[in-house]
Amino acid sequence: MSVAESSVFPIPPDVLLAPMSLARPNRALLFALIATLGSVIGGLVGYLLGYFALYLVEPWIESAGYAESYLLAVDWFQQWGFWVVLVAGFSPIPYKVFTVAAGATGVALLPFVLGSLIGRGARFFLVATLVAWGGARLEPWLLRHVERIGWISVVALLVAMLWLQYG
């Protein structure tokens, strides 16, 4: 499920990871590792889709007058590539959108993979650990508030990035 979700599937792995971690708390970290590795593999599939899809639509981008906007997006991804992928991997923003965009804009592969490993790993290990630790009483709360937690984390990461860049 993690492989498919990172490239095309709409349902996040958290939906299965949480109950699996609840049912087998002693295996929660293994489940998180499997979800993380699967998600990174799926991210690479999305990256390749973006890479090859761009090749097919690049003439249309230029003829439609979007070349300047596209170059701006490429610059943003190249400047912040690792951070964009890391934030997207942890956030409630659909990760697949960023995997395809990273391939389409030519984000370097190593920062893409590292950002994916850290972002997706942080998300899945957090979910698995909290559910394994908090048990049945925490699981519904976590699933209800995971999006809010994700957005708070995104804001914190963005503030940290800006502080590091300009502080």
TrEMBL record:
Keyword Transmembrane assigned: yes
Entry GO terms, CC: plasma membrane
Lineage: Bacteria, Pseudomonadati, Pseudomonadota, Gammaproteobacteria, Chromatiales
Identification of the protein by name: Lipoprotein B
Swiss-Prot/TrEMBL keywords: Lipoprotein, Membrane, Transmembrane, Transmembrane helix
VTT domain mapped to chain residues: 29-131
Natural source organism: Halorhodospira halochloris (Ectothiorhodospira halochloris)
Matches recorded under InterPro entries: DedA_domain, VTT_dom
Domain of life: Bacteria
One protein family per Pfam: VTT_dom
Segments crossing the lipid bilayer: 29-57, 97-118, 149-166
